[in-house]
Amino acid sequence: MNPFQQLGDIKKMRDQAIQIQRELQGEEVSVSKNGVDIVIAGDQKIKELTTNGKSDNDIKDAINEAIKKSQEVAAKKLSQMGGGLQGLLGGGQ
Questions:
Q1: Residue 41: its pLDDT value, please?
Q2: pTM of the model
Q3: How many other C-beta atoms lie within 10 A of the C-beta of residue 54?
Q4: Does the domain formed by 3-81 have CATH 3.30.70.20?
């Protein structure tokens, strides 16, 4: 395999990763749990957090659930890369 081809493939994958990261910033996941409302972006930055005075454990549980859901969004976007990583690692040839 041509080493310059591999460099081009790596750059293409990097560009795809950057594009996916930008798209994830635009995705939002909303979670309501135990009286706590959270809006978290697909890049896992909490955008909004409101509570009705519940304990810290309630807030922690809601944050953990929101992060989990945003990770699912990220995994879906990354899976759209298809064989990109497999090709880089020598698979799918």
A1: 84
A2: 0.51
A3: 14
A4: no
